[in-house]
Structure formats: structure tokens, C-alpha cells
Write a structure and sequence with these properties.
- The complex is a heterotrimer of chains A (about 280), B (about 325) and C (about 300).
- Chain A has a single domain, classed as MetI-like fold.
- Helices cover about 75% and strands about 0% of the residues of chain A.
- By secondary structure, chain B is an alpha/beta fold.
- Helices cover about 35% and strands about 25% of the residues of chain B.
- In chain B, the strands form two sheets. Chain B has an eight-stranded mixed β-sheet with strand order 6-7-8-3-9-10-12-11, with helices on both faces. In chain B, strands 2-1-4-5 form a four-stranded antiparallel β-sheet, with helices on one face.
- Chain B starts with a strand and ends in a 5-residue tail after the last helix.
- Chain C has an eight-stranded mixed β-sheet with strand order 6-7-8-3-9-10-12-11, sandwiched between helices. In chain C, strands 2-1-4-5 form a four-stranded antiparallel β-sheet, with helices on one face.
- Chain C is built from eleven helices and twelve strands.
- With about 300 residues, chain C is of the alpha/beta class.
- The chains are: A mainly alpha (about 280), B alpha/beta (about 325), C alpha/beta (about 300).
- At the B-C interface, α8, α9 and α11 of B face α5, α6, α7, α9 and α10 of C.
């Protein structure tokens, strides 16, 4: 037996609580820390955590705690923007190709083509072509992630299109746009939202990977992945540089995955019946 | 003589989110070998759940909280699932409503049909094949040997249901349970299937428990009829008595509507309202709110199932408890 | 043309393809429906009765043939032009669980239907209140979602939606097959009552002959995509002339007279069925008129 309904809901609840903590930390970065994330100070290089710098300092003497807070901000911002753009593009491509089957030949071939590449390799090559920087990362990751959402939207839409209530709306003489907005989108929303939470998590993880590989956020802008990359060289002498941003990445991805898992199980009719 | 099947005061409860909902309340049935009993009622009245609980096939969140099911004096609801399965396969056969879901789509008819023969009868390979053909032929399939190689999806609904029937009677069970066996089928096919079931129970001297919402189906196959309403048996009598002289106001309405529709009429008589939801807590008679004979007592106290004065049947209605001399 | 005829179907054909396999779902059928009457299409699953209903409201396009609705040939209208006519032909489906958008409240479900008839100028709330009462539900039900209702109540909502556009023709595709007997009676009476009040016509698609006898004025029996017999309800039920119609009528399960049906079972039922099917597949398209309103498909 899988989890019952109560457990599923507590999954989502715990996930949301876990996510709120880094969210608040990121939003209140300038309140929680008085340091400047860019200010270097050669005198306090590689200091271990102490009362002044609770997470220590990095190789340029910057406060790790402050940089982590600003890094969360950037990571969440990129995650949010990537999710937003892949959601919009994915839902439009998915509904259009399901609703007008002739467009599906072009749109779905494109989607299949993109999905043929492993996402991270595609994101790396796109970021390489476009160059580093926040905007380019958002573009690269959005292109990598919208196909998954498009695919799920299309399948969910096709399922809804087979329902008799769609035919009753057609019989009333409603036009396609009305049907898409009033009939299709509300009925596929829950299924798409599950994918959206996973996309959010994957976008944050992949931004870190891109930054870690040096094709992501430009130095010296603090990003969680970039900080992990910086700390790599000092892993034996100053492990705090890599540990704290690394933990935060796992924390955020874990909480988003918990929300996604909980939502998926709550919406899965098989789990519901067993519940 | 002991009864073949004896259900005593069966009360079944479904565990929903945070409450328990009574699905059947004190249902008692008994069946001698070779007899046939029909349970009729509207969807959600608990008739299928009662039948499925005999075989222990209910969802895990549906539990028997009171009462017992005896089959040849063995208490089925207290058996381990392994022992229950042994009895189910060999002594109780089951026909389901939807033949497609009752058959496994990835196995041929022969593979599915030979399984119970292998497990319960322990026949040899060649004996199994001839037995399969014999079973299919007895279920009214003509080119049975060719049919063995088919997969379920290659057959029509009527043919699939015949295969399900063949599987159900494979081990010559003493009791056959048919849960809405013809609901998913066309009318002309329905007549064929009912005929086959009737022929088979007669030939093999099987007892039959048939569940249906259609009094027409029940009347073709069963001698005894139980009428269920909202989890309770409200009337139990011979088929002729139920059809010609239904005593409970609900049975009366049900039979009359069926008769009116079948015989053609200008205006159907209508019972207003709908069946109470199982979670509604009703003190009195469950039918009271829709009943034209409803009096104060009907709403306050639940009537018990009492023996009819004019025969062997039972009825659950205040009308016959207070004015016994009338009948 | 007869003034009273609101729908005329001439030589309608539809073929479905699956792979290389072709199925003639609708084989050259013709019929007409008069104003205010109930015309029934009866047959077993796969006979093409549901496809016919879908062809009439252009959920599927016909291969050939004419559908003339109130003088306009709608079979070759473009979807855009037909959209304006759509509110005049409504459909009620079998499955009351699948035919209402689960994310809309009843109020929205009804108001969107009322709004599709642009001629309606009266206050929308008044119209909705009248609608919900006329199908036997409460005004307080307007704020509920479809899943809060039972099957019978949902079918009432579907009916309210269908009559909201003030249609001339309502196609009822097995509207009571999924319902319990007593609820069936309620819905059938409601359909009759509303027809008397508003005067629209029904095309009643069903496999249940008893229900058809109760509700319809004229009946067409379909088998394998063809109409094998058509006549008034009395003619079909009292004087069935096609072998397949007779078989269907024999299949009604009788409650009272058991002897007759026992005999019937003894003469092998499945043989009769095969004979009837072979007969239909071989029959020509010639009609044999028994009375001005009653015909059967002729043998070759």
C-alpha cells in the first residue's frame, strides 16, 4: 500500500514549509546581513565560521553567509523565470498541437527534437552559444524545459478533448478560444502544475550546474552553483565555502520535489482509491 | 440439512477520509444447494458489495464489522486469504459485469481457462485442452477449438462473457455468483447469456446468486428475490410473490415501473426524491421520505424485517407491523 | 416540402477507417423529423445510431448526403457558419458524469448555455432561475459543482443546459441508460413534460425498446448502419415486419409471461441472431412500404 491521503497532504505541507525558509532568507538578504556580497577583504581570507562571519569567508574574504543569501535570491529568481517561460510556451504549444492536429506535425517534431538531447547537455551548449549571464541562462533553460511541459499539456488536453462536456460546449456554439480557456485549461491545470514544480526544482539544480561549469552566472555575482565552483579548490582547507551553498541547493530541490511528489500522488486516481 | 450459503447479519462499513460509512446493515441471506436467489436494488444499495464480500474481493478500506458468511458451514470471513482462495476457485464461481476487465488481456483464452483446471483439478495437459473445449461449448461457443488461440480483445462482448462463464464453471462450483452479468451487453446478447446461465445451473445443479438492477434479469433466473434499498433488505420472498404482489411500497414502485415500461403506457408513475446518501443518518425507515404511506412512526423508528402473514416471505415496513390484521 | 418537417436527412453515408479496414458506419440512411415529435433511433451497440446523432450536429462530418435543418442544408456548411445555428440543435449524452465540466458551478454551466442564444434579451438570472426550477432542482443548487449531485440530478442539469438555448431539436443519446429504473421514470417524464411546454422535437437514441415505446411517436430500427424498419410506435410494436425488429422485440425481458420466453430460448437464440444479421447485410436499399408511415428494408 502506498501512502494514504493524509500522508500525501502532509508531504505537500512539509515541502511548502521547507521551501518558505530559503525563500524568506533570500527575500530578506539585505536585512539579515549587513555585509556587501561583493566587498573583498584580503585580511580576512578563508576565515572559518566565527561570531562575525557565521558561515566564514571565502578566498577573497567575502562573507559566505551574505553571498549565500544573495545566491538564493538569484537561484530562486532564475528558477521562477524559467518555470514561468517554459510554462507559457509549453502550455501554448501543447494545447495548440492537441487542438489543431495539423500543427502537431511541426510543433511536436520540434519538441521531440529538443527532448532527444539530454537536458543538461542542451542547456550547456545553449549557454555556450548565448554566452553567460542571468538572461541567457533563463533563455537556455526555458528552451530545455518547455518540451516536457508541452508534452504533458498535449496528452492531458487530448484526454480532456475526449470528454463529452467538450462536445456539449461545441454544441452550444462556443468558439475554440472559449473552450480552451473555460474547459481545457481548468481541467488540465492540476496535472501541469505537478510538472511545473519539478521544472522549478530542475531549473535551480541546472542553474547551479551551469554556474559550476562556468557557463552560468557571471562572476562576481553570487550564485549558489558559482559558489560551489569557487569552493571546490578549497574543499580540504576551507570546506565551509562549498558546504553551505551546496546544502541550500539540496534543501530547495528536496522541498520542491516533495511538493511535486505529494501533488502527483494526490492527483493520481489509483492512490486515491487505495486511500 | 445445512445451508450451502448462509449470510448472517452482515454489516459492512467503508472507511472514508475521516469517518465510517455503513454500506450494508444487518443483511441476512441463505441459499440451499441448487437454489437460486436474486438481489435487486438500485446502484449504491450495497448489493454488489454483499456479493463481493463473500469472496473477500472488496477494497481494503471496506470492512465487515459485524456478521458472518458461512459456506458449507465454513466461516469465509474468518479464513486466511490463502484458504479462502482455495474455496473460491473450486467451489464458488463468479461472473463479473464487465467481461473485458475480468479477463487478462495478455493471455490467450486457453491459458486463462486452463489455469483453474491446473490448480484446482490437477488435470493432465491433454485432458486440460479437451476440458477447455468442452467448457467453451457448454457456454454456447461453437468453434471452441479455434477460440482457444484468441486473445480477449479479439472477441465481442457477448463472446467474452461466455468465456468468463466458462471460467466460472470450470471446476463445477456449487455456487455461482453473477454480478450484473448482462448489464454491459446488448439486449439480444443478454437473452442468449441468460439462457446459457440458466441451462448451466440446471445441468450442474449449481446454486445461483444473481445481482442485478433489472427485475427482468432477476425474474428469468431466480426463484427467490431479495429487494435491497440503501444497504438494507426490505423484502424477501419468492419471485412470483415479489412480482405479482410486492408488499413494501418501494418494491411495489420498482415492480410497477418495470411493468409499466414493458407493457407500454401513457404515463409512468413516479417516485419523487432520490435514495438517501449512505452517510445520512436516518433514524427511521430509509424509504420514509419518498413513501406515500409514510406516518410519524416511519420517520422515528426503524421497522424490523418481519415474516409476512400470507407466506414465507419477509418485509420491512411499519404498514404491516401495526395493521397486521389487515393482511 | 412539408411545413412541419424541421429536419430532413437524405442518403447519409459515413465510413470509418482503421488502418486498411473500412467500416461503413452509416449506410445510406434517410429520415425526417417533424416539429414537436419524438423520433427514436433504436438498435444495438455498433449499429450506427450514436454516429447518426453526431453527424446531425456535425461533431463528425458526413461523407455524402444531405442534412436539411429548417430549410438550410447544414451538411456542407463550414464550421464557422454552422456555429450560429448550433444553439438550435442541442444534445444530451448518456453519461451524466462526463458531460458536465467538473470545474464549473451549475450557475456558470447554465449561464454560458443561455448566453449562446444571442436573441435572448431578458435578465440572465431570471432565465437561470426558471430553468433550474423547470427541471426540478432548487435555486440553492446553482452554487454547487457537478460532483455534488447524483446521476439523475446531473442528467437534469444536462437537460436544463440543452433547453437553455431554446432549441428546435434536441438529440437525446441514451439519456437514461446509465440511470436506475425509478430515476429513469423521473427523467422520461421530465423530457415529455418539457416537450409539451416548449414544443421542441427529440431524436431519441436508445437500445432500450421499452423506453422507446414510452417516449417516442415514430421509431426507426437500425442495424449495421442501415435503417431496416421505420414506422409509428404502434406500427413497430404491434406489427413488426423486419426479422431484426422481431428479434429485438422478443429480447425484451418479460416479467409476467414466462412460458412464451421459455419457448423462445429453446429455439436457438444465437442462430436467429446470425440469420437476422446475414439478412440485413444482404438486403438491398429498396424500401417496402406497408403503410404511408411504415416501411421495411427489402430483401434482394
Amino acid at each position: 500500500m502506498s501512502m494514504n491521503k493524509k500522508n500525501v497532504n502532509s508531504y505537500i505541507a512539509i515541502g511548502i514549509i521547507l521551501l518558505i525558509i530559503p525563500l524568506i532568507l533570500g527575500l530578506l538578504a539585505n536585512v539579515l546581513s549587513t555585509y556587501d556580497p561583493y566587498e573583498t577583504d584580503p585580511l580576512i581570507r578563508l576565515k572559518s565560521p566565527n561570531s562575525e562571519h557565521i558561515m566564514g569567508t571565502d578566498d577573497l574574504g567575502r562573507d559566505v553567509f551574505t553571498r549565500t543569501l544573495y545566491g538564493i535570491r538569484i537561484s530562486l529568481y532564475i528558477g521562477f523565470m524559467v518555470t514561468f517561460f517554459s510554462l507559457i510556451i509549453g502550455v501554448v504549444v501543447g494545447t495548440v498541437s492537441a487542438f489543431y492536429p495539423w500543427t502537431s506535425r511541426i510543433l511536436m517534431r520540434l519538441v521531440d527534437g529538443i527532448m532527444a538531447f539530454p537536458t543538461i547537455i542542451l542547456a550547456i551548449s545553449l549557454a555556450g552559444i548565448l554566452g553567460s549571464g542571468t538572461k541567457n541562462i533563463i533563455i537556455a533553460l526555458s528552451i530545455s524545459y518547455f518540451p516536457m511541459i508541452a508534452r504533458i499539456t498535449k496528452n492531458a488536453t487530448l484526454e480532456v478533448l475526449g470528454m463529452e462536456y467538450i462536445e456539449s460546449a461545441i454544441a452550444l456554439g462556443k468558439n475554440d478560444l472559449y473552450i480552451i480557456f473555460n474547459y481545457i485549461l481548468p481541467n488540465i491545470a492540476s496535472r501541469v502544475m505537478v510538472q511545473v514544480t519539478f521544472t522549478f526544482a530542475m531549473a535551480i539544480l541546472n542553474e547551479s550546474i551551469l554556474s559550476f561549469l562556468g557557463v552560468g552566472i557571471k562572476v562576481p555575482t553570487p550564485s549558489l552553483g558559482g559558489m560551489v565552483n569557487d569552493g571546490r579548490n578549497y574543499i580540504s582547507t576551507a570546506p565551509w565555502i562549498i558546504t553551505f551553498p551546496g546544502l541550500i541547493i539540496s534543501w530547495i530541490v528536496l522541498s520542491l520535489n516533495m511538493i511535486g511528489d505529494g501533488m502527483r500522488d494526490a492527483l493520481d486516481p489509483r492512490c486515491k482509491n487505495r486511500g | 440439512m445445512c445451508k450451502l450459503l448462509n449470510i448472517e447479519n452482515l454489516t459492512i462499513v467503508a472507511n472514508e477520509k475521516n469517518r465510517k460509512v455503513k454500506i450494508t446493515d444487518n443483511v441476512s441471506l441463505s441459499l440451499n444447494s441448487g437454489e437460486s436467489m436474486g438481489i435487486i436494488g438500485e446502484s449504491g444499495c450495497g448489493k454488489s458489495i454483499t456479493a463481493l464480500s463473500i469472496l473477500g474481493l472488496n477494497n481494503p478500506n471496506i470492512n465487515i464489522i459485524d456478521g458472518n458468511i458461512f459456506f458449507e458451514n465454513i466461516c469465509l470471513n474468518k479464513l486466511s486469504s490463502g484458504n479462502l482462495r482455495k474455496i473460491c476457485g473450486s467451489k464458488i464461481g463468479m461472473i463479473f459485469q464487465e467481461p473485458m476487465t475480468a479477463l487478462n488481456p495478455v493471455f490467450t483464452i486457453e491459458q486463462q481457462l486452463s489455469e483453474p483446471l491446473k490448480i484446482h483439478l490437477k488435470l493432465s495437459k491433454s485432458a486440460i485442452k479437451s476440458k477447455c473445449i468442452e467448457l467453451l461449448e457448454s457456454a454456447g461457443i461453437k468453434n471452441a477449438s479455434a477460440m482457444l488461440k484468441y486473445y480477449p480483445h479479439q472477441l465481442s462482448g457477448g463472446m467474452r462473457q461466455r468465456v468468463v462463464i466458462a471460467m466460472a464453471i470450470a471446476c463445477k462450483p456449487k455456487l455461482l455468483i453473477a454480478d450484473e452479468p448482462t448489464t454491459a451487453l446488448d439486449v439480444t446478447i443478454q437473452a442468449q447469456i441468460l439462457h446459457i446461465i440458466k441451462k448451466l445451473i440446471k445441468e450442474n445443479n449449481m446454486a445461483l446468486l444473481i445481482i442485478s438492477h433489472d427485475i427482468g434479469v432477476i425474474s428469468k433466473l431466480s426463484q427467490e428475490v431479495s429487494v435491497m434499498y440503501s444497504g438494507e433488505i426490505i423484502e424477501q420472498d419468492s419471485k412470483t410473490n415479489i412480482i405479482e404482489n410486492p408488499m413494501h411500497p418501494y418494491s411495489e414502485k420498482l415492480i410497477n415501473s418495470a411493468k409499466e415500461l414493458n407493457n407500454g403506457c401513457n404515463h409512468l408513475s413516479v417516485v419523487n426524491g432520490s435514495v438517501p446518501r449512505p452517510e445520512e443518518n436516518i433514524m427511521g425507515c430509509k424509504f420514509a421520505a419518498r413513501c406515500e404511506f409514510c406516518r410519524n412512526i416511519c420517520k422515528e423508528k426503524k421497522p424490523s424485517l418481519i415474516k409476512k402473514n400470507n407466506g414465507n416471505g419477509y418485509v420491512r415496513c411499519w404498514k404491516y407491523i401495526n395493521d397486521q390484521n389487515l393482511y | 416540402m412539408d411545413e412541419n418537417i424541421i429536419l430532413q436527412v437524405n442518403n447519409l453515408n459515413k465510413q470509418f477507417r482503421s488502418g486498411n479496414h473500412k467500416i461503413q458506419a452509416i449506410n445510406n440512411i434517410s429520415f425526417n423529423v417533424k416539429k414537436g415529435e419524438t423520433f427514436a433511433l433504436v438498435g444495438e451497440s455498433g449499429c450506427g445510431k450514436t454516429t447518426t446523432g453526431r453527424l446531425l450536429i456535425k461533431l463528425v462530418d458526413a461523407d455524402s448526403g444531405e442534412i436539411i435543418f429548417k430549410g438550410t442544408n447544414i451538411s456542407n456548411l463550414s464550421n464557422n457558419k454552422f456555429r450560429k445555428l448550433r444553439p438550435s440543435i442541442q444534445i444530451i449524452f448518456q453519461d451524466p458524469y462526463g458531460s458536465l465540466n467538473p470545474r464549473m458551478k451549475i450557475k456558470k454551466l447554465l449561464s454560458e448555455a443561455v448566453k449562446s442564444n444571442t436573441e435572448n434579451k431578458s435578465d440572465i438570472n431570471d432565465v437561470i432561475w426558471e430553468l433550474i426550477k423547470s427541471v426540478g432542482l432548487e435555486v440553492s443548487d446553482l452554487d454547487k459543482y457537478p460532483h455534488e449531485f447524483s446521476g439523475g440530478q446531473r442528467q437534469r442539469i444536462c437537460i436544463a443546459r440543452a433547453i437553455a438555448t431554446q432549441p428546435d431539436l434536441i438529440i437525446c443519446d441514451e439519456p437514461v441508460s446509465a440511470l436506475d429504473l425509478l430515476v429513469q421514470a423521473q427523467i422520461l417524464n421530465l423530457l415529455k413534460e418539457l416537450q409539451k411546454k416548449y414544443g421542441f422535437s427529440y431524436i431519441f437514441i436508445s437500445h432500450n425498446l421499452s423506453v422507446v415505446r414510452y417516449i417516442s411517436d415514430r421509431v426507426a430500427v437500425m442495424c449495421m448502419g442501415k435503417i431496416v424498419e421505420e414506422g409509428t410506435t404502434e406500427e413497430i410494436f404491434n406489427n413488426p415486419s423486419h426479422i431484426y425488429t422481431k428479434l429485438l422485440l422478443d429480447s425484451i425481458l418479460d416479467l409476467t409471461d414466462n412460458e412464451k420466453s421459455e419457448d423462445l430460448y429453446k429455439t436457438y437464440y444465437d442462430d436467429k441472431y446470425q440469420v437476422a444479421i446475414d439478412y440485413v447485410s444482404k438486403s438491398s436499399s429498396k424500401l417496402n412500404w406497408i403503410s404511408p408511415t411504415h416501411y421495411v428494408l427489402q430483401d434482394i
